[in-house]
Amino acid sequence: MGNISHHLSSARSVDVNGRAYRWPVRPTVVVCFDGCDPAYIEAARAAKVIPAIESMIHGGFSALALAAMPTFTNPNNVSIVCGAPPAVHGVSGNYYLDRETGREIMMLDAAPLRAPTILAAFSSSGANVAAITAKDKLRKALGNGLQGIAFSAEKADICTEAEHGIGNVPMLVGRGPPDPYSADLSLFVLDAGIRLLESRRPDLLYLSLSDYVQHKHPPGMPEADAFMQAVDMRLATLIRLGATVGIVADHGMNDMAQPGGTPNVLYLGDRLDEKFGAGATRVICPITDPFVRHHGALGGFVRVHLMRDGLDANIVRQFVRKIPGVQHALAKEEACQRFDLPVEREADIVVVAEKGVAIGARAVDHDLAQLAGERLRSHGGLAEQAVPFLLSHPLNADYASRPTAGLRNFDIFDYALNGIL
Ligand SMILES: [Zn+2]
Asked: Cα(108)–Cα(90) distance, rounded to whole angstroms?
C-alpha cells in the first residue's frame, strides 16, 4: 500500500492508484447499479417513474461511460473501487484457468487484490467508510483492507463487529436477508445504506446491487419499471439525507435469444473440438458464477487456451474470427493492450461476441434448464459496454469542461469527490 498517502492541509486528499481524491465535503455515496443498461433508464423516464434520476439528469450530471472489458460484474466492481482498469488490479473475470493445475479458479478467491481500493485508502486515512454488496463474494474483495463496515445483503444475518464492522444488520434494516434470487436483494442493499447514512453518517459509502431483474426482464416491462421506481425512491432518500450520490453500472444487458426464444448460443468449444480435435483447446467462460440461474454461464466474452503442443495460435484465431457471431478474436497481447487487461491471467485468444450472441464452451457444459424457459439476457461483450454515469450535483468548471467521450465507469469516485461543486 505504498502509493497511499494523505495530506493534512486545506486541500486534504488521498492518493490511490495514481489519482488524488479530495476528502469528501459531505457523505459521498457511489451506487453500482448492476446491469443497468441505459435502455432501462430511458424506458423508466418515458414511464415517468424515476423522478430522482430525472432530477440528477437535469440538475446534476449525466453521461454515458464505458465499462471495463470484459463487461462482467466482478472486474467492473473492482475497477470502480480501485478507480483503475483490470491491468492495474488484476481481476479480469470471475474465473481464470490455472495452466499449472488445469483448474478453473475464482479470481476473487485466488489472491488479495494487487491494487489498493479507494475505500481502503480512505479508511486508513481516518475516513468512515462502508461498503454493502448484494453478493458475499464481492464483499470479501471490496472489503479488502477496509477498516470500516463491509457486508452483503446475501449474508446479512451473520454479520459480526469483528469481521464486518457491524452486527445485527437485520435489526438495522428492519428485515432479514432477502431471497438471493429476488429484486429485494438490491433493495436491501439500498435500505441498509439509507439506515447507515442516517445512523452513522459515513464519509464514503459504496452500494453494489444485483442484476437479477435485468437478466429476467427487458427495459420497459412492468417488472423492470417497478424495480427502477423502487430503486429511484431510495436514491431520492439518499439525496434528501444530504449525500452526494454517484451512479454507474458494471455493464449493460442485451437479449441473446432467437425470435422463437431459443438462446442464441455459439458453442465455441464444440466448434474447436470438431476442427482441431477434442481437448486441443479449452474455452473458459469467465462469466461463470455461483449465481448461474441468471444466465446459464453464457455471455458475450470467452477465453480460448491452447492445450496441445504445437497448435498455432494464429491458425486457431483465424478459424474463430470467421465463425458467424464472433465480433473479435484477438491474440493475447492485442487483447491486453486494447482492453487494459492483465497479461499474466490472459488466455491465448480472446473472443468477443457480436451483439445478441452468447458464446459458450461445449453444449454439455451449459445447463439451459436454468433459464426456466425465459429468454436469455446477458452481457460480457462490447455491446454491453456503454453504461449510465450520473451525479446528483453539477460539475465544477474544470470537470464540466472535460470531454465525455473517454469517460469510464471507474471514473465515478473521481467525479463524485473531485468533480462537483
Ligand atoms: Zn453485473
From this structure: 10
- For 280-338, write each residue's pLDDT tens digit: 999 999 887 655 555 678 999 999 999 999 999 999 999 999 999 999 999 999 999 99
Residue 151 CB-half CA count within 13 A: 29
CB count in 10 Å sphere of residue 220: 15
Phi and psi, residue 202, nearest 5°? -65, 150
| Assigned C-alpha cell, 285 | 467462460
How far is residue 355 from each of residues 265, 300, 324, measured CA to CA in Å? 12, 8, 12
d(CA 340, CA 70): 10
Question: Could you tell me if 298 and 380 are in contact, meaning their C-beta atoms sit under 8 angstroms apart?
Answer: no
Is 246 in contact with 65 (CB distance < 8 Å)?
no
Q: For the segment 138-193, what is each residue's pLDDT rounded down to a tens digit?
A: 998 898 899 999 999 999 999 999 999 999 999 999 999 999 899 999 999 999 99
Compute the distance from residue 111 Cα to the ligand 1 centre, in Å: 21
Helix axes 38-46, 222-240, angle to 10 degrees: 90
Question: Cβ distance 84 to 17 under 8 Å?
Answer: yes
Q: How many CB atoms within 10 Å of residue 277?
A: 11
Q: DSSP letter string over 259-287?
A: TTS-B-EEEHHHHHHHHH-TTSEEEE-TT
Cα–Cα separations (whole angstroms), residue 341 to 70, 79, 170, 231, 389: 9, 11, 39, 32, 22
Longest dimension (CA), the chain: 66
| Residue 381 Cα to ligand 1 middle (Å) | 12
Distance, CA 92 to ligand 1 centroid (Å)?
14
Q: How many other β-carbons are positioned within 10 Å of the β-carbon of residue 290?
A: 11
State the Cα–Cα distance between residues 91 and 155, nearest whole angstrom: 23
**Cα–Cα distance between 85 and 78 in angstroms, integer?**
8
How many whole angstroms from 353 Cα to the centroid of ligand 1? 17
251: Cα within 13 Å, side-chain hemisphere? 30
Distance 185 CA to ligand 1 centre (A): 13
The residue behind cell 454488496 is 133
Give the three-class secondary structure for 129.
strand
Residue 225: Cβ within 10 Å count: 20
CA–CA dist 170, 159 (Å, integer) = 9
Of 387, 380, 386, 393, give the one whose Cα is nearest residue 421: 393
